[in-house]
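[Q] Does anyone have a clean structure-token version of this?
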Amino acid sequence: MLRKLYDWTLRQSARPNALGTLGVVSFAESSFFPVPPDVLLIPMVLAQRQRAWLIAGVCTGASVLGGLFGYAIGFYLFETVGRWLIELYGLEGKATQFRVFYDQWGLWVILIKGLTPIPFKIITIMSGAAHFDLATFFLASVATRGARFFMVAALLKRFGQPIRAFIEKRLTLVFLVFLAALVGGFFAITYL
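[A] Here you go.
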């Protein structure tokens, strides 16, 4: 089943609407959706390495725009939608603690956590809730999301064929590591 899903994703990544789909997933992940855009970014770059920079650019731009939407949720709708999303991810006990921490370390939180598998939507919503400076939030989001997605694209563009061979040979292992990173990100934001 995993092989069929992988092959389907590779086929979809070469379709004309693939960039739009990646943009939607990247936007949603930064504000409310739990699945990171890497599940599309990686196969898209592997399937079309010559378009790696365009793919990373769409992923970055949509992620930053989604981050602004997440910021707006936190800024304007924290007591309703924002709190509901935070509770959905099991982080309601951390919200107050996070606000205090964020007042002192906000820029570093955005820069560091934007590179990790820790869900970026939590950062965007809490940035708005903390009324963090919007211009600084925007620039930090561009830097950290751009670094993450362009680094993945650069590695795949440069070493694409060996990476693709590795993934295809050890698909179950790669899937389990990806799943562990995703769950680990949620665990880290919840318990650390």
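[Q] Thanks! Anything notable?
[A] The chain has one domain: 2-191.
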